[in-house]
Amino acid sequence: MPMKIRKLRLAIMVGLGAMIAAPMSIASAQDDPRIAKAAQHAKACEGGNAEACYQRGLLAYMFPNRLSEQLRYFERACAADHATACLQAAEGWEHGPNRNPDKAKFRALMRKACNLGNKSGCSRYAMMATYGWNGPVDFADAKWAFDKDCELSKGSQFESCDGDKIIADARGKYEARQDLYKRAAALPPSSAPKPAKVDTTITEDMYVKQSGSRSNARDTSRSGYTSCTKSDGSRGQRYWYYGFDNKRKEGPCL
């Protein structure tokens, strides 16, 4: 068979295959119950139903621009005081769509999640305020979050009521750094180099990053405390949580 005829025959077969496959894909998409459910949630969300906005956000993985879609619906649900949606929106801004995080939004939304009664939001916001993660150190706000976390966890296996001890330890180290900075700033320029700005935030190397992933199931054990050994050999506690990337992260041993 001449080469031109073979090429023409192949082109016709490919074209016919595409024509057959296209209606089948459209039909299968239309038959997918999740598509219809997503449309129902979107319509209810437009009508002001916070839970529908949250559920539509959970289905965003089926559509283009998945992270932007999720954040849009989670933030709408959060604005209507849906606590879990606030936590999800916060986790979304921790990394941000297109790898463009907004740390201020991350912290503010996490605080709102706590205020609305989300335990994970309280645990994580308390640590942010204690160590100045994604914003200033605020011991008063940290105590509020720790106390709320304790109240929400009473009677559970994840009970965490050691906020005062964690804050006291962090405050001592923070005040020591501030004192050192003031002393350095008071030295004559000729006797000491210009003091560097003291960084009151906790650095990334204080996290113990874990490579293990966790299932997508949402439950009440996305954060908590675990026993650990401090550098001086005494026993302490380490805070842990699962981030938006579904990876476990751990704080310092305190």
From TrEMBL:
Name of the featured protein: Beta-lactamase
Keyword Cytoplasm belongs to the record: no
Signal peptide range: 1-29
Signal in keyword set: yes
Region (Disordered): 209-237
Polar residues bias (residue ranges): 222-231
Keyword annotations from UniProtKB, A to Z: Signal
UniProt-listed InterPro entries: TPR-like_helical_dom_sf
